[in-house]
Amino acid sequence: MNIFKALEAASLRLNQNDPEFHSQANLTTDILRSAGVYPCRRCSLNGHVHKLLSAAIVHVYQQDTSLDVTTRRAGNYALYGYSTKFPVYLTKAVKLGFLTSQNGKATGKLELSELLVEYLDADQAMLA
Predict the structure, then answer these.
(1) Distances (CA, A) of 44 to 12, 47, 58, 67, 90
(2) For the chain, which ranges sit under pLDDT 70?
(3) What's the CA gap between 90 and 74, in Å, rounded?
(4) Residue 38 contacts residue 32 (beta carbons within 8 Å)
(5) Looking at residue 128, what is its pLDDT?
(6) Which residue of 6, 35, 54, 121 lies most exposed, with the fewest beta carbons within 10 A?
């Protein structure tokens, strides 16, 4: 799923009252923040940005598809109204092994790593 479509769908789902989705998005945010993908400084200002990208990852997980990053240009993210830090966060997630890429970079089809899938599966089982 294209990154911009995933972000749009995640944004819409965050505005709905879906406790399972919010729980998984919060879990993903916490995991990525504790690993250093998202910076801890100024979380009160940028926490919504972190949660939106985490929600897009959860949306892709629930749709059982990949996150397709077709561009890394900051201008394209700004044009769609998203944070220009998303490419940086995706690069860190690939480097730390939370997302896997065919070329080792945060471009193309990004799949969720087994570790992240296991955390999300466990959270889903606890909520059920």
Answers:
(1) 21, 6, 21, 27, 21
(2) 127-128
(3) 13
(4) yes
(5) 59
(6) 121
